[in-house]
């Protein structure tokens, strides 16, 4: 027989391990599933509060709400307004929250809450059609002043952005050539004026409202910003300083829409904002976002909750199998039945360790006593095992009832153990006892329990529960490791002890 | 705690469990041949064609309802052994050495009624001793009368000789002697004494019990250093023949020497243990590699045994 080359085998194993780890890393980066449990991520909770005086007529209150704010993603939205009809309306690319009521009078307060996640990568989609500058008409003497100011700004600039910056600088009162500026600024809204002038100069411009985020602030107003279209996207400027771009802590609440709030059937309306910096577990965040991410199909969070909890358990099994493989192949611990320890460990996960250990050893011990009677009955093997299964069920029921009456809830946990496996364990132990003596039973029993406890400790660690469920692809790596161990031809740790007498011949 | 460094073991060429399984058993032993060695009845038939003698088969009990026939047969028998066909490691073997009125005398001297043997047969049929708990058949064989020269070393039980056959070449051998601790069985892990045998001459080398070197048999008190196996080359040839009979590249052959019949094959083992290395005081790996690196294999069992005796002889 020829020995085949091991190279393809090791290449396949390397591929498995690398694939598992890289898919996990990719999902960690893309969806943001954290590596560790308990990782927190900041979230801004912004609450818009609308106060108005209803006049007793049918009421419609319409608030512009953000859709895509640069630097933020929306996690959740929620309106709190008992007694009002509520809906979110999408209209010409802007979204509005609308409250309606037939008959209402007096002071009213409406709330709209949104959770934002800071995400530097989030950018609004580009407009499908380039916006056209509005046609603007001026009356004298403003027309002349506008023309002169725009001419100055145009001379000192080359692009729409620099033009905007220059214009803002020229419009500041401290500027030396204040004459035209003063004329223009007096009696009009400064920001509207800027927008009109820019449109006049052939640059699409509009206003926007932003909210400066500071933890635990209440009753905050929005600050105005200027936006121009540079042919590709909307750029934001501070209308006072001419600074381009948006500070990190500013959330643009309104862009593009004409009005922030419209109230029909009421007056004295006002919007104010409160905000709170919250932290939520990163894993919860990832689960919420998985649905609308292309990588979400790999996530088990889309399954019904019942199946999810089953998979939580199932996905721990490979770790137990890995543990058993390691203990048997590399350490050389003898166990009774190859994977009996894993099944016992799974039961321990449900019962917790100490009650599980007590329950398991007492069931097996009582079972061994009864089995010694069975062996004197001279039964056929199948009926002996069947009888043993029934006896095991009796024992567990008895232990549960006795435990319950004595006030221990732990007695009840016995039911988590797989009955058939326990019956087989008892049978094997009993034969072992007859053939090899009590010592071997102790060695194998203790070995099985030791491996079961190790497997339990690995499976019960919060980190492994987290990783196995959230990164199921890591099981490729586990599979690779198990295959690799299948090729281990070195000495077991136990053999280093077993072969010790060979020292004499070395 | 006493430990030996893995480097020292590698230097001595000690074969370990994992390497035995991966590099030898799974590479050289074809799974389809396993039933041949795992079933003593099939082994008997297979090796008979190659002229390897086994203890005389007296009866095969295949079904529960055949058990009463056994009682009529047993009436005329003096000494016999009941074995499960698929048993391993000597499990489920009952040896009857004589009669005392209606009762049977076991090897240990205990007297048992016929009903005890019937229950034992029933257990064997149910698969109590078979490898995977599958239903089994019981075979009743003639009792082996060990040659006195060897039998006197053993406490009860029949001493047997384990020879490792690799690709048809005998590579290592040991004599196994039952002790009180092993309950008359010849299994080393149960406490039997293992005496390493020189492949070149059949002379004893070292002796171990429970993996520890000993000089005297713990029960019989006899010195173990000057045992000499008669007809050694014939036994090696016989063991080599089993390679042709089974096709297994790596196996353990268990032989006994009967006072009337000469060497007999007791059983074959497709997964022979590693303790033979301790009894010989040397590792298997250098010898296995010597066989693996042979340019041209010898075709007959006789030449293979001769070649092994030449290359593996201990130089005293």
Largest sheet of chain A: 5 strands, antiparallel
| Distance, first to last CA of chain B | 34 Å
- Nearest-integer average pLDDT of chain B: 88
How many beta-strand segments of chain B? 13
Portion of residues in helices of chain B?
25-40%
Evaluate the radius of gyration of chain A. 37 Å
Q: Give start-end ranges of low-pLDDT stretches of chain A.
A: none
> Structural class, from helix and strand content of chain A?
alpha+beta
Helix content of chain A: 40-55%
Name the beta content range of chain A.
15-25%
Please state the average pLDDT score of chain A.
Answer: 81
Oligomer: heterodimer
Distance between the termini of chain A: 32 Å
What is the fold's blueprint, element by element?
The complex is a heterodimer of chains A (506) and B (316).
Chain A: H1 7-30, E1 40-55, E2 59-65, E3 72-80, E4 85-91, E5 94-101, E6 105-118, H2 142-155, H3 160-171, H4 178-185, H5 190-200, E7 205-212, E8 217-220, E9 223-229, E10 234-237, E11 250-255, E12 261-264, E13 266-281, H6 282-290, H7 305-314, H8 317-331, H9 340-351, H10 353-376, H11 381-405, H12 419-436, H13 438-460, H14 462-470, H15 474-485, H16 493-498
Antiparallel strand pairs in A: 1-6, 1-13, 2-5, 2-12, 3-6, 4-5, 7-9, 7-11, 8-13, 9-10
Helix pairs in contact in A: 1-15, 2-3, 2-4, 8-9, 8-13, 8-15, 9-10, 9-13, 10-11, 10-12, 11-12, 12-13
Chain B: H1 6-12, H2 17-28, H3 34-38, H4 40-48, E1 57-61, H5 67-75, E2 80-84, E3 94-100, E4 103-106, E5 111-112, H6 114-126, E6 138-142, H7 148-151, E7 160-166, E8 169-177, E9 193-197, E10 204-209, E11 212-213, H8 232-246, E12 250-258, E13 262-269, H9 276-280, H10 285-292, H11 301-311
How would you describe this structure to a colleague?
The complex is a heterodimer of chains A (about 500) and B (about 325). Chain A has helices at about 5-30, 140-155, 160-170, 180-185, 190-200, 280-290, 305-315, 315-330, 340-350, 355-375, 380-405, 420-435, 440-460, 460-470, 475-485, 495-500, and strands at about 40-55, 60-65, 70-80, 85-90, 95-100, 105-120, 205-210, 215-220, 225-230, 235, 250-255, 260-265, 265-280. With about 500 residues, chain A is an alpha+beta fold. Chain A has a five-stranded antiparallel beta sheet. A four-stranded antiparallel beta sheet of chain A has the order 4-5-2-12, with no helix packed on it. In chain A, helix 1 (about 5-30) runs antiparallel to helix 15 (about 475-485) and helix 10 crosses helix 11. The longest helix of chain A has 25 residues, at about 380-405. The model of chain A has no long low-confidence stretch (mean pLDDT about 80). Chain B has about 325 residues and is an alpha+beta fold. In chain B, strands 11-10-9-8-7-12-13 form a seven-stranded antiparallel beta sheet. In chain B, strand 4 and strand 5 (about 110) form a beta hairpin. In chain B, helix 8 (about 230-245) crosses helix 11. The model of chain B has no long low-confidence stretch (mean pLDDT about 90). The interface of A and B includes residues 431, 489, 497 and 500 of A.
């Amino acid at each position: 027989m020829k020995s085949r080359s091991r190279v393809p085998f090791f290449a396949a194993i390397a591929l498995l391990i690398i694939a598992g780890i890289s898919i996990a890393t990719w999902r960690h980066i893309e969806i943001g599933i954290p590596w560790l449990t308990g990782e927190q991520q900041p979230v801004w909770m912004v609450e818009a509060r609308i106060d108005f005086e209803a006049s007793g007529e049918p009421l419609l209150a319409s608030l512009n709400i953000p859709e895509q704010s640069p630097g933020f993603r929306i996690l959740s939205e929620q309106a709190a307004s008992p007694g009002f009809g509520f809906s979110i309306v999408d209209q010409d690319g802007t979204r509005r929250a609308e409250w309606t009521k037939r008959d209402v009078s007096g002071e009213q307060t409406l709330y709209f809450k949104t959770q934002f996640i800071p995400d530097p990568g989030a950018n609004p989609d580009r407009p499908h059609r380039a916006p056209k500058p509005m046609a603007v008409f001026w009356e004298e003497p403003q027309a002349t002043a506008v023309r002169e100011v725009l001419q100055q700004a145009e001379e000192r600039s080359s692009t729409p952005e620099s033009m905007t910056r220059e214009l803002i600088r020229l419009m500041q009162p401290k500027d030396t050539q204040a004459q035209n500026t003063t004329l223009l600024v007096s009696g009009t809204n400064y920001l509207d004026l800027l927008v009109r002038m820019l449109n006049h100069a052939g640059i699409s411009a509009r206003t926007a409202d932003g909210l400066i985020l500071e933890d635990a602030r209440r009753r905050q107003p929005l600050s105005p910003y200027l936006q121009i279209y540079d042919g590709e996207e909307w750029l934001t400027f501070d209308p006072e300083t001419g600074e381009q771009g948006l500070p990190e802590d500013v959330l643009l609440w309104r862009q593009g829409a004409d009005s922030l709030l419209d109230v029909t059937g009421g007056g004295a309306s006002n919007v104010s904002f409160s905000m709170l910096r919250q932290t939520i577990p990163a894993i919860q965040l990832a689960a919420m976002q998985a649905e609308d991410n292309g990588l979400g199909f790999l996530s088990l969070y889309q399954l019904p909750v019942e199946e999810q909890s089953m998979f939580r358990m199932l996905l721990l099994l490979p770790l137990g199998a890995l543990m058993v493989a390691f203990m048997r192949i590399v350490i050389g611990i003898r166990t009774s039945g190859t994977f009996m320890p894993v099944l016992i460990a799974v039961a321990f996960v449900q019962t917790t360790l100490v009650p599980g250990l007590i329950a398991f050893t007492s069931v097996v011990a009582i079972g061994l006593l009864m089995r010694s009677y069975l062996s004197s009955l001279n039964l056929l093997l199948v009926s002996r095992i069947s009888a043993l299964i029934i006896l095991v069920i009796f024992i567990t029921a008895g232990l549960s009832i006795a435990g319950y009456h004595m006030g221990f809830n732990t007695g009840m946990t016995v039911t988590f153990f797989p009955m058939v496996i326990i019956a087989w364990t008892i049978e094997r132990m009993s034969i072992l006892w007859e053939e090899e003596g009590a010592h071997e039973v102790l060695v194998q029993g203790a070995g099985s329990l030791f491996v079961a406890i190790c497997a339990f400790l690995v499976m019960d660690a919060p980190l492994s529960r987290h990783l196995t469920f959230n990164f199921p692809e890591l099981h490729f790596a586990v599979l690779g490791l198990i295959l690799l161990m299948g090729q281990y031809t070195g000495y077991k740790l136990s053999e280093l002890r077993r072969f010790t007498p060979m020292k004499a011949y070395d | 705690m006493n430990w030996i460094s893995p480097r020292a073991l590698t230097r001595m060429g000690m074969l370990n469990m994992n390497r035995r399984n991966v590099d030898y058993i799974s590479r050289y032993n074809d799974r389809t041949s396993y039933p041949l060695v795992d079933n003593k009845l099939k082994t008997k038939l297979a090796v008979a064609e190659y002229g390897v003698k086994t203890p005389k088969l007296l009866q095969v009990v295949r079904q529960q309802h055949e058990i009463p026939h056994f009682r009529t047969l047993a009436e005329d028998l003096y000494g016999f052994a009941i074995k499960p066909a698929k048993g391993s490691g000597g499990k489920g073997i009952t040896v009857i050495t004589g009669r005392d009125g209606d009762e049977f005398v076991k090897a240990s001297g205990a007297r048992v009624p016929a009903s005890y043997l019937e229950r034992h047969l029933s257990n064997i049929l149910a698969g109590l001793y078979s490898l995977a708990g599958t239903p089994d058949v019981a075979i009743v064989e003639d009792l082996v009368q060990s040659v006195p020269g060897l039998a006197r070393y053993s406490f009860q039980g029949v001493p047997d000789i384990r020879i490792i056959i690799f690709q048809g070449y005998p590579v290592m051998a040991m004599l196994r002697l039952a002790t009180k601790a092993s309950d008359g069985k010849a299994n080393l892990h149960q406490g039997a004494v293992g005496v390493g045998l020189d492949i070149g001459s059949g002379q004893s080398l070292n002796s171990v019990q429970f993996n520890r070197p000993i000089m005297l048999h713990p029960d019989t008190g006899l010195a173990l250093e000057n045992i000499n196996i008669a007809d050694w080359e014939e036994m090696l040839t016989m063991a080599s023949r089993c390679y042709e009979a089974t096709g297994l590249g790596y196996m353990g052959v268990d032989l006994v020497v009967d006072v009337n019949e000469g060497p007999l094959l007791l059983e074959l083992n497709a997964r022979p243990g590693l303790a033979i290395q301790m009894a010989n005081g040397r590792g298997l790996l250098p010898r296995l590699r010597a066989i693996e690196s042979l340019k041209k294999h010898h075709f007959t069992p006789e030449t293979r045994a001769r070649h092994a005796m030449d290359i593996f002889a201990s130089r005293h």
